[in-house]
């Protein structure tokens, strides 16, 4: 979390973004702002469009109307594959199901995109990969295959894979939701450290306690809209919106479990 | 490939051991007769030269079929109708055509020689048989490839494209390598099936094993020899195809989704 309060440049801005899958309108006018160096969490009920927002930001989904700006690039107007690839080089994404490439080793998973897409020399890419693996505390798993790792380990490799492109922004989509409870802590610890080091990130999460701790602002989505975006304390404890209070209240027992698990 | 794509496969598998037993005991019985044994050994090199042709035809047909099938299989999954439709039409048409009909078709459609850069090159019947079997092989391989590509979860596409890979790069580096494992067993099954179909080439005059056996039987003109010679043909195909089918089963078990 950024500690100083001098205004920082805006890295991501969504204005009135609409998107439909067939007849179903999934995003109904999304507004979201992320300053450089910020960690922004998106919380909200299932099916409210959280994943779709992330997919719009890195061009995996195409909004029908609205404006999306990422580091000066107008994402909504990108038309060609080459333009979208240029964007994705700068925006990393980590998925709920890790989605590592099962036929490649941990090292190959991490170095594939840097060497093939960014044309980084192999030795340099491998050195960076080893640094990143040490950072996510998996230095000894360099030549393992994803199938040989636990869920928590796979997810940490996936985070290292995203970081290997040296992205300006990383999107985390419920990265702990598929994990056994005892592995959630190790993944959150890695993200916490990255955010402290100033990584700009957008996190979709159900870990309320964690979101409250690390986020500069939290956005609450419901039914294809962002109902509120505010600093955690404000959203969690001073929101006048009964739906938000009810949603967060529903996680109260869950929060205790998280605190217990993380030993906080 | 699904079991439905090669309906004869299961039946053949079940029948092979019994045929092999019959052929084996028949051959054993014939070796008890010294004259028969001598005749058979005399003809063995001739029969072997025929079988070399079966192997040659099957390998070439499968190589062509694999090249064409990978392209067709990828085309079948294209977003563009103009690319997809011809591939789907080809696959449906030739997956459901009897191999013998296709061998006859290629034999009579193509000329016996072709002109390349002003000089006449012979276009022998065995090469036409290769094409006749490559045509359906393309269709079967396309289905194997298509099925294998679809069996890779879409989340792999998301992850690859999220890392900045293009569609083509994702297919080449992420999806197809994962297909290899899944496609190898059905591909080997197909190879065994194509090998067995090479015997059909005898009907258009290609000098392969079955044709050689017929030559031998007409030359010797003895019932016991005729029986022994055709049992030898069966044994040759069995000894070639059975290990492939066993290996395939082992691979299928090894690659079964965990
Ligand atoms: N490719 C798609 N085709 C059709 N509908 C889709 C597609 N992707 C998402 N949807 C629909 O869009 C809506 C929003 O999906 P999204 O995945 O963004 O929700 P979410 O907030 O991430 O939910 P969750 O918390 O369950 O992950 C859902 O109703 C979903 O069924
Ligand atoms: Mg989601």
UniProtKB/TrEMBL annotation, chain A:
Keyword Phosphoprotein tagged: no
Taxonomy, superkingdom: Bacteria
Protein name, per record: Amino acid ABC transporter ATP-binding protein, PAAT family
SMART domains reported in the protein's UniProt record: AAA
Organism: Methylobacterium pseudosasicola
TM helices/strands, residue ranges: none
Location within or outside the cell: Cell membrane
Residue span, ABC transporter domain: 12-248
Pfam families linked to this entry: ABC_tran (PF00005)
Cellular component, GO, one term: plasma membrane
Sorted UniProt keywords: Amino-acid transport, ATP-binding, Cell membrane, Membrane, Nucleotide-binding, Transport
Protein family (similarity comment): Belongs to the ABC transporter superfamily.
Origin organism lineage: Bacteria, Pseudomonadati, Pseudomonadota, Alphaproteobacteria, Hyphomicrobiales
From TrEMBL, chain B:
A Gene Ontology cellular-component term: ATP-binding cassette (ABC) transporter complex
Topology in membrane: Multi-pass membrane protein
A Pfam family that the UniProt record links to this protein: BPD_transp_1
GO BP term (any one): amino acid transport
Keywords, comma-separated and alphabetical: Amino-acid transport, Cell membrane, Membrane, Transmembrane, Transmembrane helix, Transport
TM helices/strands, residue ranges: 12-31, 51-74, 100-120, 126-145, 190-207, 227-248
Domain ABC transmembrane type-1: 51-248
Any one GO MF annotation of this record: transmembrane transporter activity
UniProt subcellular location: Cell inner membrane; Cell membrane
Similarity comment text for this entry: Belongs to the binding-protein-dependent transport system permease family. HisMQ subfamily.
PANTHER family: L-CYSTINE TRANSPORT SYSTEM PERMEASE PROTEIN TCYL (PTHR30614:SF0), MEMBRANE COMPONENT OF AMINO ACID ABC TRANSPORTER (PTHR30614)
Protein name: Amino acid ABC transporter membrane protein 2, PAAT family
Annotated source species: Methylobacterium pseudosasicola
Lineage: Bacteria, Pseudomonadati, Pseudomonadota, Alphaproteobacteria, Hyphomicrobiales
